[in-house]
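Before a colleague's protein record goes any further, I have to sign it off. Would you go through it and say whether the fold makes sense for this chain? Take the sequence as given and treat only the tokens as open to question. The record follows directly below this note.
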Amino acid sequence: MIAGHLQEKKGLFYIVLNCRDENGKRKPKWIPTGLPVKGNKKKAEGMLLEARQNHEEQQKLEAKAQKEAEASESEKVQILFADFLIEWLEMMKHQVEFTTYVSYYNVIHNRIAPYFREKGIALEELTAKHIQDFYQQELSERDVTTNTIIHYHANIRKALQYAFKIELIPSNPADKVERPKKNAFVGSFYDSTEVNTLFAAVKGDPVELAVILGAFYGLRRSEVVGLKWQSINFQSQTITIQHTVIPVYFQGEQIIVEKDRAKNKASHRTLPLVPAFKELLLRMQEQQMQDRALYKSSYCKKYAEYIYLDKLGQRIKAGFISQHFSMLLEKHRLRHIRFHDLRHSCASLLLANGVSMKEIQEWLGHSNFSTTANTYAHLEYKAKVSSAHAMSQCLQF
């Protein structure tokens, strides 16, 4: 216990504790008792003892707090960047949509965390050079695309920004990383002759509906599978894109995510129902009624609200569309393209027929104009021909 004594000053008792400063130099601490010297010695001695005990308790608490702070500081330094990513991922599970979370999960668990765990790099030790080295290894040894690296970078930067926000790191090292340039995207597409040949080849085929929706309306595969009867208004002759069915792979299993909305706000769109497609829908509606009557109890009624069903009432799977589409092209000796390239074919045909980029953005349901412009600018040939004609009119060479 700290030493101390009573001191008389101007007729009052004072408690003097023999304290020392941080350098060990003696620095007495004076504490007034407010008690007159006369008749209060025992009471003052009691207060002295209490002050000495309180000071000792205070020292113990301060020492404990110091140890805890040092331990916390030590623990913070020991957090591996890989472990922090996993913790951040768990937090994001409740803040983003499941499909977005799965995207984060697969990238972090499969590529980012294993690399940095093997390197043993702590969160506070992480530098832009460490991140840059990771990107370079992925590009050179795994031959990933620069678009994949940009996807990695988005995850890493977002996680580190959170670490910076809660003061685990003094700055975000990802901000100093040189991102690679995005790969210029040029999608494959069919011209009008090829699309018409495809339409003829697909008549009566299980993927007829998907091909028409992809090539004519530019629907995404998730929008094709998610189309419901309530989205078709035969009276006003419209089709509304407002529901999607998306398969995602999570922890080795396929999970089907149904959403009563499209990919983004702009993707929720209403398009005109053309006669040829209306006739196909009516035929499908009649066929489903016949299938229900034919297969009776074997017919699945769970997906009755959906348009794209097989003979037993099961909803057509997105994977079936891609696989069967490829087989169809091979069977009819048509040039191979992906199913999603029908969407690009739709855009190219719209452009070729004088439809503006803004109108194409609305038709395809792109969230912003730049997406449409950047994706299909190389197809805007008619505008270039017009420009060349205008230049020829004023320049002679």
